[in-house]
Amino acid sequence: MEDFIGVSGLEHATVQFSGPRSAFAVTDSVGRFVLEGLSSGTYLLEVRHILCRPWRDSIRVAGNMAITIRMQPAEQELQEVTISQSRRRIQPANVRLSREDVARRASMLGEANIYDALQQQAGIIHTSELNPGLYVRGMSAGHTGIYIEGMSTLAGNHLLGIYPPFNADAFSGIRLIKEDIHAQYGGYLASYLMMETSDAIHEHLSGSVEVGVLTSKLSLEIPLAPNKAAWTANIRRSYFDLIANSYNHINRNNSEYLPLPTYGFYDVNNSLQMRTGKRSLLKVATLFSGDRFDMEGRFIEMSGKWNNQLAVANWSRYFSDRLRGQLHAGINNYRAVMTYHEATQKKMTNRVLETMLQGSISWDILSGWLLNAGMFVRRHDLLVRSVSTLNDFVAGYHRLDKTVFDWGGYADISLSPGDIFRFKTGVRIDRYCSDTRSLHLSPMASVSASVAGGTALLSARRNVQFAKLYVPLGVQLPVNIWYPSDSMSPPETSWNISISYGRRFGAGWNANVAVYYTILDNLVELMQGNYFSSLDFSTDTGSGLSKGVETGLSYQTSQFHANVQYSLGQSTCRFSKINGGKTYPLSFDIRHKFDFTVVWHWRPRWSMSMAQFLQSGFIMTVPTGIYLHQEADVGYNREWIVPIYTDRNNFRMPLSHRMDVSVKHDFIIKSLDASWTAGLYNAYACQNPYHVFFSREENADGQIFLQLRTKSLMPLVPFISLKVNF
Asked: Could you tell me the domains of the chain?
């Protein structure tokens, strides 16, 4: 085994060796890197830096060696960066992932999945296939805002929640903010997921094609004007509907054949980067997605289609070395149509339209003083229609139409007098206009300090949420609606308080711990209302509390990365009209959650990943008794079992756990980089329930009772995918 010493002259350049062994390194402050234990042979050496063109060459390693690499400057003017003397302060509880971080984890059916990667972090629970989303610190998916380049997306997930509505390949950076929430962010109680596209203006045409078990993907990076403009497109399409339609067509003349349900989806993520001047950049990001589902059975016929269109433009300009301005404008249109076919046909249309305009500045007033401020206006339109027809006549028609406005501003200022301390404070002001008008203040403050070789952070923030995600069937389906706050459903509020500590120690070790305490007020529970027959709801307003501890420990080298996360939490609520006014657990009150993930580059061009989780069962409502209802008619009697429900959320399901494993191999096809990934989802076939139901049973004494039964959706599923880069 040999040592390889190199000098590139640039700090934080990434170095990668591919050959008999795989090795990775990052250059130090003088541009030096050392790779130990390389076996003799020919390697492909790649060096990359944001300020330079990529450097690539074949290197023959034979004995201890040293090399000097000369990097060529990139022929593009990059966005200016202000560098202060302060040390880099970490935020232990917040999550930051790159595209590569998401891609290398064992994910569902071999495809990089943002939700899977985030659910492996502390404080974010794992969900079933029918109930995807981000449930952060014991709160619901509707309490976390999901933003693409600063514009919130209200899109529902692709069916069964196997895939989120956005392609992980489209985003270069992913941040989930749980603590130290800036004054700029507003509208959600728990956290904020920020997904950002790349700022790079590509010089050469490149891309990739990936074929998986259920989907195929195409990625393109297209230069439009040298050093001026570039376009990136990421396209994904499922093909289960093509298979089902072909099979149904083959059996179309078989009267005994029951047609397969057909389901298909697509999504297209685009981003345009355009340099509009020496010190300004325009970015435009779009998302187009569509789903279609059809089921024709003997007992049930239903169909649905839903789509989402999002567009956001972000223009930024540096007026000076200390002053930067930004303008954001965006629109998001989500529409779902569900049809239930019976003797009486029922059709529901759900449409949500949001528009946003925001301007902001970032001003480095003095050394260590930074001001961020901005103003915004947002409009939220909701239209829900429910129509029932009988023999081409309208039997019932209901309509819910609401338009609300939210406008205001924010400002925060941070003070860093030295390299070991930072104080930040700010406030957000929302003027909310629906059938009533209200003014809401959301103050925030945080203190960060270097302590014992690590970073300690204390933060507090008030959050206000103006739209309630109503989930009538208890799972994340297209029939869910974002109900805007009004006099019946006031804005929900929370105080998020957390203290955390993170430290890097030893060679590759990182540890962190966070304690959080969230006080919830004005929680809204929609009590009654049938989504298909009536759009009139009654509500109850209550309070809640979420508290817990999050811990994590990770170890990373050039070839091995292991991560252990553990969460202990409790979330409860209380409503005067529910459970007799007693405190009871929220649906996603997960007491214990444990995650263990490993990524191992065990041979040259070979890597393996494994993800194992174990967490407490979900909370649900089960009947506490039954009674028999006798229905008499001429010639026969019918007996119905009617369940009796007393308390809500009165039963906890058993522990849920799952292991996913995958192996990846990189290779070359006619000078093109390629890779295949194979693995197992749910490797030991754990039957975690996604659906709970009750069956009628009778014991030896003739007593009738209801037996709780569960049904699992995804058993052990092998997968394989192939990706080619060009």
From this structure: 2-68 (2.60.40.10)
